[in-house]
Design a protein that fits this description.
The chain has 7 helices and 10 strands. With about 240 residues, the protein is an alpha/beta fold. A 7-stranded parallel beta sheet has the order 1-10-9-6-2-3-5, with helices on one face. β2, α2 and β3 form a beta-alpha-beta unit. Bound molecules: 2-phosphoglycolic acid (PGA). The site of 2-phosphoglycolic acid has 7 residues, from loops.
Length: about 240
């Protein structure tokens, strides 16, 4: 894992957008793994700004999102489909047919999971995966205890995750209890991974990732088994971290 320190959220967003654009520009066809939540929002904004300045095109980009809530339709404002359309897809020249997000209202969710991994595989795998990290160390919605061998699967969300995400919903009660997520193994099969970490509330998780052991109790630690991971962390996220 290579740690890149940046000053704040704005700089993290800029840095990651630049890293993504460099990859997009250097290839004729690229598969990006995308994340949702507060962390990558600024990065998507930077990508939209670059598109508006005509310095980047998404014509040859295919995307696979990490996860989706079970039970939320794509037009539900809290779904990750909606988030992606609003944050990125509706504002750039990506072909809608090249954007994939797990279907949280599939009739057969287990089959949806199998098909999602299959689709990634036959598309040639993910070239660059963007990740955030949960306060409990989750990546995607892989909560502590998830097998490192896991493919895309259905998860019951941790109470801490439900509480952290409640800010987007009217009532705590409205936060879905389950999600479909790419598994740890699905994530580790990406050729390159960028983990974004911003804010003091993530500093304990970052400390444990950098200085703790590799264990399924802390899903992000699986990234230590991957040869090509960049961590882009801001000063607040690094505030509890001892970096030698
Ligand atoms: P956040 O979530 O970006 O909204 O903090 C990250 C995560 O839970 O993976």
């Amino acid at each position: 894992m290579r740690l890149i320190k940046v000053k704040n959220y704005e700089d993290m967003s800029q840095k990651v957008a630049e890293m993504m654009m460099e990859k997009i520009r250097e290839s004729n066809k690229i598969n990006l793994g995308l994340a949702t939540g507060g962390t990558p929002k600024g990065t998507y904004k930077k990508l939209v700004e670059a598109y508006e300045k005509k310095t980047i095109s998404f014509q040859h980009v295919t995307t696979f999102n990490l996860d989706e809530y079970v039970g939320l339709a794509p037009n539900d404002p809290n779904s990750y489909h909606y988030y992606m359309n609003e944050s990125l897809f509706d504002h750039v020249d990506i072909q809608t047919s090249n954007t994939y997000i797990p279907n949280g209202i599939a009739e057969d969710l287990k089959e949806e999971c199998v098909q999602y991994d299959h689709l990634i595989k036959i598309s040639g795998g993910i070239d660059l995966q963007i990740l955030g990290i949960g306060q409990n160390g989750h990546i995607g919605f892989n909560e502590p205890g998830t097998s490192f061998e896991s493919g895309t699967h259905i998860v019951k969300l941790d109470e801490s995750t439900i509480n952290a995400n409640a800010r987007y919903f009217n009532r705590l009660h409205d936060v879905p209890t389950h999600a479909v997520t790419m598994g740890i193994q699905s994530i580790l099969q990406s050729k390159e991974i960028i983990l974004m970490v911003s804010g003091e509330e993530k500093s304990n998780a970052l400390q444990r990732l950098l200085n703790g052991e590799v264990t399924e109790d802390f899903p992000a630690s699986a990234l230590k088994n991957h040869p090509n991971v960049y961590i882009i962390a801001d000063e607040k996220a690094l505030s509890s971290v001892f970096v030698s």
